[in-house]
Design goal:
The structure holds two protein chains of two kinds.
Chain A (H helix, E strand, L loop, with lengths): L3 E2 L4 E5 L4 E7 L6 E7 L6 E7 L4 E4 L2 E6 L4 E6 L8 E8 L7 E3 L3 E6 L1
Parallel strand pairs in A: 2-11
Antiparallel strand pairs in A: 1-3, 3-8, 4-5, 4-9, 6-7, 7-8, 9-10, 9-11
Chain B lengths: L2 E5 L2 E4 L5 E8 L5 E7 L5 E9 L2 E4 L6 E6 L2 E6 L8 E8 L8 E2 L3 E5 L1
Parallel strand pairs in B: 2-11
Antiparallel strand pairs in B: 1-3, 3-8, 4-5, 4-9, 5-6, 7-8, 9-10, 9-11
Classes of the chains: A mainly beta, B mainly beta.
Chain lengths: 113, 113
Amino acid sequence: DQQVKQNSPSLSVQEGRISILNCDYTNSMFDYFLWYKKYPAEGPTFLISISSIKDKNEDGRFTVFLNKSAKHLSLHIVPSQPGDSAVYFCAASYSGGYQKVTFGTGTKLQVIP
Amino acid sequence: SQTIHQWPATLVQPVGSPLSLECTVEGTSNPNLYWYRQAAGRGLQLLFYSVGIGQISSEVPQNLSASRPQDRQFILSSKKLLLSDSGFYLCAWSDRGSNQPQHFGDGTRLSIL
């Protein structure tokens, strides 16, 4: 059972435009959500997170939106840059003793110069 | 600042051989530690996590084991590798407490022949 889903395996965007990556989850107990960026042959790098008490969190060019009623979150990158080309993983966890995180399968973003 | 070291970066092993992958964290104390595997074209699967020295929890039954002999050292092992053990193995750490992001090492690409 895939509790965190990224239904778009890939996305292409022109440099300077907005990139929107989407993620859906099924477990209503999730209360903390994260986005990671991964380059080939490297480990994922933490980008931004959001707690379920918020519906938006912003960090520079990156903004994460959370819609709890729809069990949906999205990552907006504005403006997109060629260096943003990578695989983006959505992840979710719930309050507990050790932070078990469930990852989506990733979306490969290509930013075209 | 905190850093995580994982080695080796790549490893080619014959079926039936033993395995030992090591991960160490610097710049933090009492971290939670994790081992993940990413199979080709799939998301990250949590294999083991540890909340303290000698405390290991397994998420999936498998041919692998983990140990935490020191506070900031996490080891992934196998006595006899199977072909299905091939994949990209990632170590991660997080601070204790709720809503703490996990931070990943650069991974080990394991190929079983």
